[in-house]
Structure formats: C-alpha cells, structure tokens
Predict the structure.
Amino acid sequence: MQPGDYLRDLRNRLGVTTREVEELSRKVAQDRGNEEFSISNAWLTQLENKNSVPSIYKLFSLSVIYRAKFVDLLSIFGVELDDSVRYHSSLPLQNTHLASIEVADRDRAVRFPVRFDRGFRLETTSLISRMVEVWGEVPIALIEKLDVRNCQYGFIGMDDRTMDPLLRPGSFVQIDSHRKRIAATGWRTELDRPIYFVELREGYACSWCEIRGSNLTLIPHPLSGCATRQFAHPGEAEIIGQVTAVAMRLVSAGNGHPDGPPKLPAQS
C-alpha cells in the first residue's frame, strides 16, 4: 500500500472528512503558533493521491488527528527510528562521546528472559541460551523500569587509545552518574582502580583521574602510549561518573584497532 493510500484508508476508517482534518489541524497550528502544522483540504487530497512526502509538522498533525503514533506514520514513508541504534553501531565516530539508547516505541515488546534454569550457576561460564529456561515477550516500558536511571552509556572513540588495552577503542561503557567523587586510594591493582568518564570543553574522555586542588589530571594506561593531560576543574573538565561496566571486542583488526564497536544482538 502506498503512503497516500494508507493515510486515506486510516482517515476513512475513522470517518473523518478532509474538511474536518483541515479544521482540526488549524487548532493544532494555533496552539503551536506555527502555520506549518495546518493542513488544507487541497493539500491532503494531493497527499492521498500522489506519492508526496509531508513535512514533520503536518505529519505530526495527522498523527494527532488520526490517533496514530508518529513513529508509525514515519514508517510508512520508509523511516524506521529503531534503525538509528543499528546505525550508531555501524557508523562509529572517531571521538569519545556519550551514547544514547533510543526507544522509538515503548509499547513494543522484545524477547526477554522471564524464567532462568534453576540448575544454572553464576560461578561457572555458560551460554545465555542455556541459562534461560523461558523467553517471553516483555514490553520495553517494563524494562525501562529496571534500575537503569542511575546510569548513562558512553562510547570509546575509535581513535581514543587512552585506556588501551584495558578499554579498547570502540568499546561501550556504562557510567554510574552518582559516583563522581575521585577515589585517591583503595585499590590494589590497575584492574581495581576506578575509571571515570569526563566531559571536556571540546569532547569527552575516559581515563583514570587525580584531583589536586583545582586541577584534574587524566591518567592514561601506561601501555597506551598516550600522554597525561591536565585541566582546570570544574571549569574545563567535569566528572560525569564512574565506569562500572564495559562491552568490548577482544579480537583486533590488523591495524591494531578493533574492527568496529561491539555489535548489539539482533532483536527478535
């Protein structure tokens, strides 16, 4: 079905005329203070009969009037917002940055473990497929209610070797934004030393840190070949939080860089 046919069918099933759409859209435009939200009778007729593409403003008005999800109307024009996460993974940026996890449709269900095998032991290595006894359909909105509000996520840029080999370029890290105080002691090895995600004036950094007075020092891994950097704190550098988890490739390409970031599992 062509987009225009889909929209016409949607309107007819609701029993709404093109004139009524025009009147309702004017109310949206007046409320938003933007005439771009207004839809004329002639424009809607043309949209339904020709393969034209509406602006985001008019598509928003149609989603409101037709009681349809904006993301669903986008999809009939070939725009799938869920694909944005896939492109984040396949089109990595060279600089370290915060990573967002976007959910286009919070009502959509995903495959999720709802019962685990009682014989599974956390102490032993195993396949996830074998530790899960039953997979069920769970709404994304329910997963969002898990304790993830304290965390942000970052991506280690492909050119950022500050913590390599401990954190390879192309890694995803989980950041606890409640842990911003720099620990001066309390670790025995480099594996125990806290790593922090830092916002700079012109980007982000991920490294060990030291604070002396008003100076924040970013300390690289000794095998990285990177230099120590120092910034005024908090004027030039601000601690976002402590890195608490990492998703990282273990196999590198021939040039020493991982061949892309870790791939997210395909959704069922």
